[in-house]
Design goal:
The structure holds 2 protein chains of 2 kinds. Chain A is α/β, with parallel strands linked by helices. Chain A contains 13 helices and 17 strands. In chain A, helix 1 packs across helix 8, helix 8 runs antiparallel to helix 9 and helix 11 runs parallel beside helix 12. The two termini of chain A are 30 Å apart. Chain B is of the alpha+beta class. Chain B is built from 35 helices and 21 strands. The chains are: A alpha/beta, B alpha+beta.
Chain lengths: 475, 1093
């Protein structure tokens, strides 16, 4: 892939011709100019490496570390040995964040019931998820290299547990471009008033051109920063201001034929359209009550359910990659208090999103991903130093965790991989987070080894130097 | 997907296209174009080897020999590998397997395997090269161009001898002439003036500067402007950003639970060093090893903040060693990119694929950085072990300005003591000269806080020594009488519950209720936090509530603080708040004052009710060992109405677990001044008399007497203490220190520090110049090696970045990669000439930049001399023009504020918080983020001073491609997005700037015509006159907005109300102002405004 020099202009023959022809016409010609090239396709030039199964992605990022043994990876043997000191392999030589002394096995107190045609055991904490089991692929054999939040989040979403790399959504935006004219290709949504550990780097473009960074749509305040006109400036006045800006820019374009000026004119037009389309897209309250009922939305607050509904509206409007960040799954203490709360706040909406996409015929070519940066230990974490009734939790776990996918070319009602008897390590068909990314790109029609960007003398890619497509889960 | 057609291989143009071009050719100054060069034979060194390096070395390079084939030298290239026959058959491309391999359609066979195929141009070159005999000259195996020492080339001959202004122009022109092209005509003076102003200072030329320059016909007028700008003091603020991007300087640690870690003294050091043109070799040595210089000055130590600018991961679960190693690796990589233009990081896990850098060599580089003090240390607290930032710091002497302010404050305090002392104490001897000197010297050396503290202790000392009898006779007798009549009774209250909060999260906090009604907190403390207590059966009319802070054998050192380990730590209380709990909610109880058992002069107990969590109360000295108390006195008594339940909140935010370990809360209904006596003291006094009191009790009584006896002085002290706190805290820099015991550095297997391999010591890569034997094998030696004249990379890498900043593209277009995969220099001789000139100038940044901006190359216009130039060289590799470039994020804001007349010229100091929409900063892990925008002047400071929180950078800077400073960045991208349009149109900063700009135009031209005003606005913003067409667009807009503003005053008022902090100039008509706001807003949004032309 050719390096896009940061200060280099795309001063190609085609652009010069376009700018010259624009210059020949009158100023009024401006709004009839062809739409910006970037809407047509990304760096792959509108082609893909393989036939795409999904056109877009909605990524539910449950940050903090979801507990697989309490949700989707039932472990009867763990219940049998509940409270016993754990065997060596769960502790000796294992890298844990907090636990320092040999811990005890901690059974899940939740009932697992078989759901769907395949009879997949699902925790009672996820009653709504049971209803969509026949639509999803569950991967129980995930693993990652990092066991602290920030590095693990970065590895999951940028392919390396350090800062500086582009996020998955940026790669997709860069490679495939946008599917719409008046919304960004990559949108980041936060479900509450806390941010992920790694902050905006999780939707940052790294060394890719800045326009591929995720645009944050906010749950409170202006839906997109600076999308609202200044006080006292009407939409008509804004239009006239933009007309004047573009008229003056066009005078300069006629003199200099600099394609960057032409692009700037296009961007002002898109900005104006965004000012209309963003409030429309984000007005989830225009949806009928039944839809709100299905998602379980909440008025007046940022919530996971609201953002799921918003995500569906954005996908409908051609946003390529919507990513919801939901923090608060880091249950070192009080897990049996907080985990049910987190599930109650997210289960219904996540299931509703899959159903809703299905009903609208969008699930066929939309990939839904539900993932966390890592899992949690089957052993309990206690604060024994205090010498008091210990609040129970689970520590970080990188060697085995569970994610699920739906739509966009993955198998339906399918479980991939297996962990050992305690859910401590992968026993069968390991899937590294690089493999998950390779598979996600594959479903979008991209060969993860060929979507590369030259930076600092090296060809970089989302999967670093690893990753294999998990063919077993492809429909 | 492939290396595209280069500038020298234009695609043939269709005649139709040429017809189009013909239309504008007339508008472009035509230039004589010489005959094209006849294409010579393919050159191995410049045309073939780069292809081999870039496309083949990954598998057949210095470190890999897949299929037993290596293409790094002639002997290997012509030897049979696994194929059994040599891949190259000189003279016949057709018979060379290499050509078959790179052109194969079978993906399993085609080379490079699993990579993009070679381009048609590359294949053509290889075929021709082989057909021409595959010449692989001996000596062509010389090292990569960038690894040989630059030598000053002679100036090439040029035909147009009148064009060059500087030496460098000869190289540019000679190259153009060789291509048969010519340079662009010189930019017009107005464009040139604005360009050089923005490039050197990031700010536009003022109207006066424009007039002066345009009127000055002297040939050296431009050069004088350049000299003025370099000396303006604004140069450093503009050029620091590039360096701070490399250092990835920020004001927070980054990562989860990031904390503020502002190292602004280092940021100011960079600005000052650039402004004073500190030679780059010294600039290098001080930043990498200032601490190791003999007798290192404060500034030299501050310079090592460069190394402290790497992020620090403090999230729970990270081990000390993880955090340390991550920082060492970052430092090594940052050094590689910044000085060597080389991505050394590739070698963390394996030998570098392309560049001759082995994994062992990489760890030898890291070894130089491996011996420094840890910056994150474990803290064993509530919720487990976690890390806290605890890197070495250096307290800086206050600045001259702060010293002056501190002295001023100290003299005022001394004067008040002089004035008030006789009122309270007739016949008191005035302060002695020695006493004054002590106070003023405190101000001079350590700042205002120290001065106030010294005045306080001098005064206490006097009371103790001299005021005793007086106090005895007057105040204390009266108190004793009242105590006899009814000593204040303190009744312990029942504590219903205690909750411990860290930020907004409740954390587990076990406690035990002891027989005396006190609570003993157990287990490790949080590092900082808040206790929330609920009290029951509180007397309705209590006149005081006292928190007793008690000792206990179970606490570290016996208490009363908790802290960590066995050390005895003081308790620090930041804030205390009370509220009455009623069924329908909580009613806050206003507090009148606070008193404590002991305190120091600058951290008075009243700091706990000032609603500023940054200030607090603590104590020291002897008091450390004893129980303490702090009493809050409600305004007019508690006055409880309902169920007599009270919520007591004690914030303790000092950190290091300096929290209360055992506490009891009691109340009294005694008269207010009696409330001030500590529990039991009055009784002890009645029992034993003054002489029977312990020294500690006497101290308390004396402190109370001081408050009561000299009320005016007490308020003077309180005022001075507040003023001292408001003054800049003595700056503290984060610096690097070398541990006394060196660490052994290991190669990490697979790049993981938990699997150490062989041990290595510090050393430099073999591909580069050797380290002189007399250099120490430490950071200092490394730094000196980097700026050794024999180092082939540093000077080239540095001048190339500056060139790119000024001319739009680097001579090497990959400023962070000078390795074999990087772009080869477009003008190798020019690069070397500049690099040598840089070193010869004594490593003067200003000399190089002056050379560049005064050159004819720089002074070219944006349009090329001919369309052919554009056709043949669309990317401007040949430097046949100087195209417009978008300003960096900080300059876009600085420029708008300067145009508006709002920009503050204030230099340096702590980070400022420019206005941003609410809700941008969110909490992260345990960090609650509050963004309080700066007031007044600080909200209009230059962008380089804006706070940089790594996980949430300043939004408008993000939209204009400033990074988040989480990693070393050599070049920012320059994107063009709708978010940029929305920022300039709607961000409150730009709305205010447009309004102030409109106000400025109307103020400066109170009676001008619209045309004259538009012209002035253009000159202010763009340093040029508008064209008739431009004036027409804007006056038409103005008329429409003027009409609507007059017909709809409410709308106009809404615009003004929307920018609450803006005050229009008197005599400016409101409707006119709003109409002009629409016009100036358009001007601030122009593409031209955010570009330098």
């Amino acid at each position: 892939m050719h390096e896009e020099g940061p200060l280099e202009r795309d001063w190609t023959r085609r652009n010069v011709l376009r700018s010259l022809s624009a210059g020949l016409g009158s100023i009024a010609l401006g709004s009839l100019l062809a739409p910006p090239a970037r809407a047509a396709g990304g760096a792959l030039g509108g082609r893909t490496h393989v036939a795409p199964r999904a056109k877009r992605v909605v990524y539910l990022t449950m940050l903090g570390g979801t507990s697989q043994t309490d949700l989707l990876d039932a472990k009867p043997l763990l219940s049998k040995h509940d409270g016993e000191p754990c065997p060596d392999e769960l502790f000796v030589g294992k890298r844990l964040a907090f636990i320092r002394e040999r811990p005890a096995l901690l059974a899940s107190p939740y009932r697992f019931e078989r759901a769907g045609r395949a009879g997949v055991p699902v925790s009672e904490l996820l009653p709504h998820f049971r209803g969509i089991v026949d639509d999803v692929t569950i991967i129980r054999s995930m693993r990652t290299d990092e066991f602290n939040h920030t590095p693990a989040e970065l590895e999951l979403l940028t392919g390396l547990g350090r800062f500086g790399r582009p996020s998955a959504g940026s790669w997709v935006s860069w490679g495939l471009g946008s599917e719409n004219e008046d919304l960004p290709a990559f949108v980041a949504l936060l479900s509450g008033l806390a941010q992920p550990a790694a902050g905006s780097a999780l939707w940052g473009a790294g060394f890719l051109p800045g326009r591929h960074q995720g645009v944050q749509f906010r749950g409170v305040g202006e839906p997109v920063l600076f999308v609202e006109n200044p006080q006292g400036v009407s939409r008509r006045q804004q239009r006239e201001a933009i007309d004047a800006v573009n008229a003056l820019n066009r005078i300069r374009l006629d003199r200099l034929h600099d394609p960057e000026i032409e692009a700037r004119i296009d961007q002002y037009e898109m900005a104006f359209r965004m000012q209309m389309s963003v409030p429309q897209a984000t007005d989830i309250w225009s949806e009928p009550p039944a839809v709100h009922e299905m998602y379980g939305t909440k008025r007046g607050a940022a919530s996971f359910a609201n953002q799921c509904l918003l995500a569906r509206r954005l996908l409908e409007r051609g946003v390529r990659f919507v990513q919801i960040f939901d923090v608060g799954w880091d249950h070192h203490t009080g897990i049996f208090t907080y985990l049910p709360m987190k599930c109650a706040a997210t289960d219904r909406a996540a299931a509703a999103l899959v159903r809703d996409l299905h009903q609208r015929g969008l699930l066929e070519d939309t990939l839904v991903v539900w993932a966390s940066e890592f899992g949690r230990t089957p052993v309990g974490q206690v604060q024994s130093e205090a010498g008091l009734p210990a609040p129970v939790g689970r520590d970080h776990q990188r060697d085995a965790f569970t994610v699920w996918l739906a739509g966009g070319g993955v198998k339906k009602g399918f479980v991939h991989g297996r962990t050992d008897d305690f859910g401590n390590a992968v026993a069968e068909s390991p899937v590294h987070v690089h493999d998950l990314n390779a598979t996600m790109l594959h479903l979008l029609g991209i060969d993860h080894e060929r979507l590369t960007y030259r930076h600092q003398g090296r060809d970089f890619r989302l999967t670093d130097v690893h990753g294999e497509v998990v063919r077993a889960i492809l429909a | 997907m492939s290396v595209g057609p280069s500038w020298s291989e234009p695609e043939p143009a269709s005649s139709r296209a040429w017809l189009r071009y013909g239309i504008v050719l007339a508008t472009l100054a035509a230039c004589a174009s010489g005959p094209r060069e006849v294409r010579a034979g393919v050159d191995f060194a410049t045309e073939i080897r780069p292809i081999l390096q870039q496309r083949c070395y990954e598998c057949h390079g210095p470190h890999e020999r897949k299929g037993d084939l290596r293409l790094t030298n002639k002997a290997d290239g012509f030897t049979a590998g696994n194929l059994g026959i040599p891949v190259i058959t000189p003279g016949s491309a057709r018979l060379s397997p290499l050509v078959d391999l790179v052109t194969s359609v079978d993906p399993d066979e085609r080379m490079p395997k699993d990579r993009e195929p070679l381009s048609a141009g590359e294949i053509d070159l290889i075929q021709r090269w082989i057909d021409e005999g595959a010449s692989w000259p001996e000596g062509a195996d010389e090292p990569h161009w960038a690894y040989t020492k630059p030598r000053r080339p002679p100036l090439p001959q040029v035909r147009r001898t009148d064009w060059p202004r500087r030496g460098l122009d000869h190289f540019v022109l000679a190259r153009l002439e060789r291509e048969g092209l010519g340079p662009a005509p010189v930019a017009d003076p107005a464009t040139l003036l604005r360009r050089v102003h923005l490039d050197l200072t990031g700010l536009p030329p003022s109207l006066e500067e424009q007039e002066e320059f345009l009127r000055d016909p002297s040939p050296d007028a431009y050069d004088r402007v350049v000299d003025g700008l370099l000396a303006s003091g604004r140069f450093g603020e503009r050029w620091a950003s590039e360096w701070l991007d490399l250092a990835h300087y920020a004001d927070s640690t980054g990562f989860m639970s990031e904390v503020a870690l502002s190292n602004w003294p280092y940021r100011d050091w960079v600005i000052d060093a650039i402004d004073s043109d500190m030679p780059f070799d010294r600039f290098t040595v001080e930043q990498l090893a200032g601490d190791l210089l003999p007798d290192a000055t404060v500034e030299q130590q501050v310079a090592t903040g460069f190394l402290r600018s790497v992020p620090l991961n403090l999230e729970a679960g990270v081990r000390e060693e993880d955090a340390r190693v991550m920082q060492v690796v970052d430092r090594g990589n940052t050094m590689g990119t910044t000085w060597l233009g080389t991505t050394v990081a590739c070698a963390q896990c394996h030998d570098h694929k392309y560049d001759p850098l082995s994994q062992v060599e990489y760890y030898r580089l890291l070894a130089f950085f491996d011996g420094t003090t840890r910056e994150a240390v474990s803290f064993d607290g509530a919720g487990g072990v976690h890390l806290v930032a605890r890197g070495p710091t250096l307290d800086l002497p206050p600045s001259a300005r702060d010293r002056a302010r501190a002295e001023n404050l100290a003299s005022k305090l001394l004067q008040q003591i002089d004035e008030r002392l006789p009122e309270a104490w007739p016949g008191a001897p005035p302060l002695s000269a020695a006493e004054r000197t002590v106070v003023l010297a405190g101000a001079r050396t350590s700042g205002a806080r120290e001065a106030v503290a010294r005045a306080g202790s001098i005064f206490a000392e006097r009371l103790r020594k001299e005021l005793g009898p007086l106090w005895w006779n007057t105040w204390f007798d009266a108190q004793v009488a009242r105590v006899r009549a009814g000593a204040p009774e303190w009744t312990a209250l029942e504590i219903v519950s205690l909750e411990s909060r860290v930020n907004d999260t409740v954390v587990e906090q076990p406690y035990r209720v002891l027989d005396d009604g006190s609570l003993l907190l157990e287990g490790p403390p949080p590092e900082r936090g808040t206790y929330v207590l609920e009290l029951r059966d509180v007397p309705r009319d209590a006149s005081g509530l006292r928190v007793e802070i008690l000792t206990d054998p179970s606490l570290p050192g016996g208490g009363p603080g908790r802290g960590v380990g066995l050390a005895r730590r003081p308790v620090v209380v930041s804030e205390i708040a009370l509220g009455e709990l009623a069924p329908d909610g909580e009613r806050p109880i206003e507090l009148a004052t606070a008193l404590a058992s002991a305190h120091n002069a600058v951290l008075p107990p009243t700091a706990v009710i000032d609603e500023d969590p940054a200030t607090g109360w603590t104590y020291g000295g002897d008091a450390l060992r004893a129980a303490q108390w702090i009493t809050v006195v409600p305004q007019g008594g508690l006055g409880l109405a309902g169920e007599r339940r009270v919520r007591l909140e004690i914030q303790q935010l000092a950190g290091e677990g300096q929290m209360i370990g055992r506490l009891r809360v009691s109340s009294t209904r005694a008269e207010r001044d009696l409330v001030q006596l500590p529990p039991g003291l009055a009784e002890r006094f009645l029992e034993r008399g003054w002489d029977g009191l312990s020294g500690f009790d006497r101290m308390i009584v004396l402190a109370l007497a001081r408050q009561a006896l000299v009320p005016g002085l007490r308020s003077s002290f309180d005022r001075a203490a507040r003023a001292a706190l408001a003054l800049a805290r003595p700056p503290r820099a984060h610096v690097i220190r070398e541990e006394a015991e060196p660490r052994t550095t290991h190669v990490f297997e697979r790049g993981d520090h938990r699997t150490p391999g062989i041990a290595v010591s510090g050393g430099t890569p073999g591909m580069l110049s050797p380290m002189r034997p007399d250099l120490p094998r430490n950071r200092l030696g490394l730094a000196r090696w980097l700026v050794d004249r024999d180092n082939p990379l540093t000077a080239r890498v540095v001048v190339n970045r500056w060139w790119a900043q000024l001319v739009g593209r680097g001579i090497v277009t990959t400023p962070d990669d000078f390795g074999v995969r990087g772009d080869r220099p477009s003008h190798p001789d020019l690069l070397d000439w500049l690099a040598v000139a840089f070193m010869d100038s004594g490593w003067s940044r200003k000399a190089v930049i002056r050379e560049i901006v005064t050159s004819a190359t720089y002074r070219q216009g944006a349009l090329p001399a001919s369309l052919e130039t554009l056709e043949r060289d669309p990317a401007n590799r040949l430097l046949a023009r100087n195209p417009a470039r978008r300003l960096p994020a900080e300059s876009i804001r600085d420029n708008a504020l300067q145009i508006a007349g709002l920009l503050s010229p204030k230099r340096g100091g702590p980070a400022v918080f420019p206005p941003q929409p609410p809700g941008v900063w969110l909490s992260n892990g345990h960090t609650i983020a509050r963004y309080t925008p700066s007031d007044g002047e600080d909200s209009y400071r230059r962008g380089v001073y804006a706070v940089w929180r790594r996980t949430t950078p300043y939004p408008s800077f993000v939209n204009f491609d400033a990074g988040d400073r989480t990693a070393c960045v050599a070049t920012r991208s320059a994107s063009n997005t709708p978010l940029q349009a929305l920022t300039l149109l709607n961000d409150g900063v730009y709305v205010e700037a447009a309004l102030a700009f409109a106000d400025r135009v109307l103020r400066e031209l109170p009676s001008g015509s619209s045309q004259a005003r538009v012209a002035r606005a253009f000159r202010i913003a763009l340093a040029r006159e508008p064209t008739a067409g431009e004036t027409e667009v804007l006056t038409r807009l103005l008329m429409a907005r003027l009409a609507s503003a007059r017909s709809d005053p409410a709308e106009a008022a809404a615009v003004l109300d929307g920018v609450a902090r803006f005050t229009a100039s008197p005599r400016v008509d409101r409707s006119e102002l709003v109409a002009w706001f629409h016009v100036t807003r358009v001007i601030l949004n122009l593409d031209e405004t955010i570009h330098r032309g």
